[in-house]
């Protein structure tokens, strides 16, 4: 409750920075497509999810059914899971990016879109706290392994939020092949966001941005694809251990790995889990577990956060 109040109060810091409204005809068209998919494909909430995410998916379902999605990034439950805005640690990340030799590159990626009515970062209104945060994650991978993101042709993201990272990669490489693996309902939210941003997004491998919640497609992907970037920011680390093992082949097939995680989630010691994963795949990868120097949760729940970074060596 206190976090909700603080989140709401901090949003007022950006009260003077407005987003442009969406094109109504396009919005109606996309909402009708989403509604039809909800009717045609009634899926139960995935039982592999932790209770936190079961509740979240039910909230997503209610939001989609209401067809009142235009300002979804203003919803408290969305912000809690997907969208960090006016936090002071974001400013430290921004300064880190500004002082980086790749600042000109990062500056272009930071430009925020209007879709979802995102809260603009009060100290850098061209962007949002969430966009800054995502670009900062990428900068850590670049700094540690000298990765040229422009040369990455394929990305697999586990738990892709509302599609922010996918949107960033659309600016890096216009021909990127990007898979968002998520729950069916969150895929629909990603569809809304990426469609409004005029990207080739859909539920087929033919789409540049492929939205997937089907394990059968995952198996096909593992057999055909190698040398991609695997991303999982605070997503893989929030699922049961047994469920994570289903993605170990996908991780092993990648060329680069970018995973963000908190030290503990519910009853799981994530630091131990990722240390074990490092030992398991270190024959094929150079792995670094790097402490997040700027983020340690909030004043109610403080804990360490880390990056699990990998580069294939064999």
Query: What is the molecular shape?
Result: globular
Range of strand content: 15-25%
Q: How helical, in percent, are the residues?
A: 40-55%
Q: What is the residue-averaged pLDDT?
A: 92
Can you tell me the CATH architecture? 3-Layer(aba) Sandwich
Strand order of the largest sheet: 5-6-4-3-7-8-12-11
Number of helices: 13
Q: Which stretches are poorly predicted, pLDDT < 50 over at least 5 residues?
A: none
Give the helix/strand class: alpha/beta
**What do we call the CATH homologous superfamily?**
Vaccinia Virus protein VP39
Task: Domain count, please report it.
Answer: 1
Order of helices and strands: HHHHHHEEHEHEHEEHEHHEEEHEE
The value of Rg in angstroms is: 19 Å
Give me the count of strands.
12
Topology:
Layout: H1 2-11, H2 24-40, H3 51-66, H4 76-81, H5 88-98, H6 103-109, E1 120-121, E2 124-128, H7 129-145, E3 154-158, H8 164-172, E4 177-181, H9 184-196, E5 201-202, E6 209-212, H10 215-224, E7 229-233, H11 241-244, H12 248-253, E8 256-262, E9 264-265, E10 268-269, H13 270-281, E11 285-291, E12 305-312
Parallel strand pairs: 3-4, 3-7, 4-6, 5-6, 7-8
Antiparallel strand pairs: 1-2, 8-12, 9-10, 11-12
Helix pairs in contact: 2-9, 3-9, 5-7
């Amino acid at each position: 409750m206190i976090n909700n109040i603080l989140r709401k109060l901090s949003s007022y810091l950006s009260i003077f920075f407005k987003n442009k409204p969406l094109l109504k005809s396009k919005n109606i068209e996309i909402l009708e497509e989403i509604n039809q998919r909800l009717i045609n494909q009634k899926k139960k909430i995935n039982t592999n999810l932790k209770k936190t995410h079961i509740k979240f998916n039910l909230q997503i379902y209610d939001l989609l059914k209401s067809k009142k999605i235009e300002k979804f990034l203003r919803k408290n439950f969305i912000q809690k899971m997907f969208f960090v805005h006016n936090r002071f640690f974001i400013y430290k990340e921004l300064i880190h990016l500004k002082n980086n030799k790749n600042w000109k590159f990062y500056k272009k990626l930071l430009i925020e879109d209007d879709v979802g009515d995102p809260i603009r970062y009060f100290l850098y209104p061209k962007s949002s706290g969430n966009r800054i945060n995502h670009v900062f994650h990428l900068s850590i991978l670049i700094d540690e392994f000298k990765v040229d993101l422009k040369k990455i042709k394929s990305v697999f993201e586990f738990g892709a939020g509302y599609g922010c990272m996918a949107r960033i990669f659309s600016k890096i490489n216009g021909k990127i092949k990007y898979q968002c693996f998520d729950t069916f309902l969150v895929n629909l939210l990603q569809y809304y966001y990426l469609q409004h941003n005029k990207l080739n997004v859909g539920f087929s491998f033919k789409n540049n941005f492929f939205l997937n919640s089907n394990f059968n497609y995952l198996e096909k992907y593992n057999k055909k694809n190698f040398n991609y970037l695997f991303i999982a920011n605070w997503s893989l680390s929030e699922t049961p251990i047994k469920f994570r093992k289903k993605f170990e082949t996908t991780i092993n097939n990648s060329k680069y790995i970018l995973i963000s995680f908190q030290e503990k989630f519910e009853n799981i010691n994530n630091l131990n889990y990722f240390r074990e994963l490092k030992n398991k795949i270190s024959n094929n990868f150079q792995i670094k577990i790097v402490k997040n120097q700027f983020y340690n949760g909030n004043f109610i729940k403080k804990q360490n956060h880390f990056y699990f970074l990998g580069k294939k060596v064999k």
